[in-house]
Amino acid sequence: MKGKKEIQLANFxxxxxxxxENASPMLKYFTEIIYPAFKRKKKxxxxxxxxxxxxxxxxxxxxxxxxxxxxxxxxxxxSRYDWENNTLVDTDEKYRSSPxxxxxxxxxxxxxxxxxGSKGHPRLSSLKTLLKYNIERVIKEHNKKSLPEEELPEIYxxxxxxxxxxTDVFKQIEMFEEIKSFSLEFIKLNPxxxxxxxxNIDSIRERCGSNSSKYTMKNPTEKKVIAEIIQExxxxxxFSMEARKKDESEVREYKNDNFKVTRExxxxxxxxxxxxxxxxxxDSFNDPRINDAKRAEKKLYEIVVEKIKTFIF
Length: 313
Description:
Structural class: alpha+beta
Radius of gyration: 22 Å
Mean pLDDT: 87
Order of helices and strands: EEHEEEEEEHEHEHEHEEEHHH
Number of helices: 8
Distance between the termini: 24 Å
Helix content: 25-40%
Low-confidence stretches: none
Number of strands: 14
Largest sheet: 8 strands, antiparallel
Shape: globular
Strand content: 35-45%
C-alpha cells in the first residue's frame, strides 16, 4: 500500500442460518468461518487467492481485517514489432504475472475499503466470488468431520455491494434519453435496516418470508425517483439499469459500480503497512457513507474482540 491509490467503498453483508428470524450476523461466526475463509490459501479456478491476511486495531473503528487478493496468471505474447527491420514478427513468449488488490474490512461497521492495484488487478467482484467460495468450503470441510450438534450453519445471505455516491445522481440519470428497465435486488441485511422508499419496496419480500427478492420496473419515466432509490440504496441493495444516453444509440447496462465514488489517497512510501492502513481508515471517515454506517451490536462485538485477541497476541 504505497503511493497514490484509488479507494472504493462497499457494504459487506453476510449472515448464517436458515430462516430470517434466527439468521446470525457475520461477527457471530467471524473466528469460526469468516477469518478461516480469508486465510484459506487455495486458488479459485487456478487464478485467484488471498494473501497477507492480517488482523489489527484502529483507534477510530476498532478491529479490522486487511489482506490482498492476487490474480496469478500467465501473459502470452504471440507477436512483437521489430522496429529495426520494420516488420511484425511471430513470438512465443510467456511471462508469469500476479497483479493484486488490497482490502480492509472494518468489523464494527461492516464497511469494506477496496484498493485496486496495477493494471490487470482483481476487481471487487472477484473478491466477492472468491470469498463466498471459501466460506462454503470452510463450512463443508468443518461439518464433514463434526458431530451434528457441532456443525456450522450454512450461508443465509451474502453480498458485497459497492456503495453509490450521495450527490449528483440525478444529474447522471438526466443524461439518459430513456430507461428500458430498472431492477432492484434485496437480501437479508446485516446489520442495517432499510428505510424510506427501499423499505416500502422490500416489505413484500419480508411479508413473504423470503431471504432475497428482485423487482424489475419496465420503462420507468420518473428519473428523480430512480435517482432517489440509487442514493438510498447505500450498499444495502444492488441495482441494474438498462438505459440509453442522449448521445448514444445503443442501450447499455448500468450497475452499482457505474455510480461509485472513489477516494484518492497518497500513501507514504516510507511508512509501515500498519500506519498506511490506519491512514486509509481514518481518511474514510471524511466520507458520510462511513459516518452514517450503523455499528455492530456492542455485546456481540465485545465477545468477538476477545476471540480476535487470541489470533493477534
